Structure formats: C-alpha cells, structure tokens
Amino acid sequence: MKIRKAVFPVAGLGTRVLPATKAMPKEMLTIVDRPLIQYVVDEAREAGIEHFIFVTGRNKGVIEDHFDKMFELDENLKSRNKSKEIEELARFQPGAGETSFTRQQSPLGLGHAVWCARELVGNEPFAVVLPDELVLNSPGCLKQMIDIANGLDERSNLVAVEEVPMELTHQYGICGIGERHPTHSTAFTIDGMVEKPPRGTSPSNLSITGRYILQPEIFKILETQERGAGGEIQLTDGMIGLAKTQQFYGVEFEGERHDCGSKPGFLRANIAYGLQRPDLRDGLRKEMLRYLGQ
Ligand code: G1P
C-alpha cells in the first residue's frame, strides 16, 4: 500500500487556547522554536509522504506563507553568511508543487474537513494527521503506521490508538479491541468505534489519536454523513460506515502523545520537546532548576 498524500485539517478555531488564537492559527503556536504544523509535516515527510494537503479556513493564510520561500529573508541571510539558518530553512522547505491548500468554508466538523480534500486526494489511500496532537518519538507515529500498513491487505484502514484514563474517554473517539495481528504485535482489528461516548458509556479506554490511514471510499460515505457528537460531521462516524465493508486496524504506537490544543498540554510539550533538543537541553534544565529554587 503506497501512501503518498497526507491531509492536515487546519481550519479549527482553537478556542481551547484563546486568546493566543484570536488572530493567529493554533497550528502556528510554537513548540520550542517551530510551529506545531512544522512538526507534523516533518513527521509525514519522514513517513514517505510526498504531497501535503492542508484544509484551511479564514485567517489561516500564514500557514501557506510558512511553507513558501521567503525571498527577502533568504537574501538577507545569504548576505550575512548565516549558513546554519539557511540550511535549517532549506531542510524544512517543501519542494515546488508538493503542497495544496483548500478551504473548509464552514466549521462543520473533522469529517467534513477531510471530505473537503476529496478532489486533491483522488482515488488512493491517504493519511490524515491532526496537527494539535504531537507524538514525540523516532520513528514518528505515522512512519510506524505506514510500516505496518505495508504488511496488511491493500484495502485496510488504520488508526493510531492510545489508552487514556476512563474518565477522559468522553473527549475522544474510542474503539474496541478485536483480534491481535499474528505478526504485528502492536496492531489489532478494531471491533467497533464511537465518537465521544457520554460519560459512563465508553466501551473501552482506547482513544483514537490524530493519525489515520484511510481508503478513498471514505469520501463517498462522508458526503452524506449526518451530524453526530457535538452537532458535527464526525470522521469517526464515517469510519464506522466504512468498517462495514473494509477492515480497520488499531495501532498502539510508541511515543509520548502531547495534546497541544489544550493549555497544559501545550506547556508540557514545550518542556518535553525542549528537553529532547541536544542544543537546548542543558540550558533549559538549568533555567528550570534555578526558577524552582534548586
Ligand atoms: C478528534 C476526533 C477524535 C479523536 C481526537 C484526537 O476530536 O474526532 O475521534 O480522538 O480528534 O485528538 P477533536 O479533538 O477534534 O474534538
């Protein structure tokens, strides 16, 4: 199964992190020294993705700018011989024609956002990556999933999953565990899914993390998908429809998941990613200890 394209739904308003997101897209919030969206695009590139599709909304133009070349900046850095910075920017720069942008015109939910990418994806399996969830690991979460997908039936769908405390299950898509895959020990068939089950009704504590590999048949289903939890067109509901005819697998990925769309998660991610960086680790630790008076 060759996965060439990834869809990044980036139209959300980021109301959980206001006022930071009043005029700035939440995907541009900075973890250490780069915006959230940069981390997930890098994760997708590492996984072999060749085309990056952004489903944007109003006020999100700066995301497109971030992935463009910036002539004045490049010239300025060149004239000052800032080779380290030039290399750093070049490493993150998508090539010409590797990005596409389309708009979700109304905030109708994740399922609707993914459906908006149907023409850009076409008739091939694709990845969906939610930028407010970061997974700290090497290899990244999507690479782990694609490695597993390569050994599965061509028409398979995969979702990344992680256990969460039972009292938090109402915040997530939840899935039930079927059978373990005989050779991929971290993968299992999914036995039922539900989006944001009301408290006390969740079938398990296995939450869907923001990484998916889906077959293009999902688009036909999303086209007529009715509103579900929260009055939104839910991707999970579309996947429940697709699971009637195609196999879904859960993948228990390796790595630390950070929910950067919440204030505590965002702050924790900054510390976790800062402590991972060889160039910043010692300085950050020293500052934190000094601040805490130790
Ligand atoms: C979305 C999905 C949900 C998933 C979650 C992961 O919800 O609908 O199934 O568990 O992302 O972050 P949202 O966080 O957009 O409400």
Please, could you describe this protein's structure?
With 294 residues, this protein is of the alpha/beta class. The chain has one domain (5-291): Spore Coat Polysaccharide Biosynthesis Protein SpsA, Chain A, CATH 3.90.550.10. The protein has helices at 36-46, 61-66, 71-79, 83-92, 110-115, 118-121, 141-149, 218-223, 235-242, 263-276, 281-291; strands at residues 5-9, 30-31, 34-35, 51-56, 99-103, 126-129, 133-136, 157-163, 173-180, 187-195, 206-214, 248-252, 256-259. It has a nine-stranded mixed β-sheet with strand order 5-4-1-6-11-8-12-10-9. A two-stranded antiparallel ribbon has the order 2-3. The longest helix is centred in the last third of the chain and has 14 residues, at 263-276. The radius of gyration is 20 Å and the shape is globular. 1-O-phosphono-alpha-D-glucopyranose binds next to strand 11 and helix 9. Residues 110, 130, 133, 172-173, 195, 207-210, 234-236 line the site of 1-O-phosphono-alpha-D-glucopyranose.
Shape: globular
Q: Regarding CATH, which class?
A: Alpha Beta
**Helix residue percentage:** 25-40%
- Ligands (ions, cofactors included): 1-O-phosphono-alpha-D-glucopyranose
Kindly report the name of the CATH homologous superfamily: Spore Coat Polysaccharide Biosynthesis Protein SpsA, Chain A
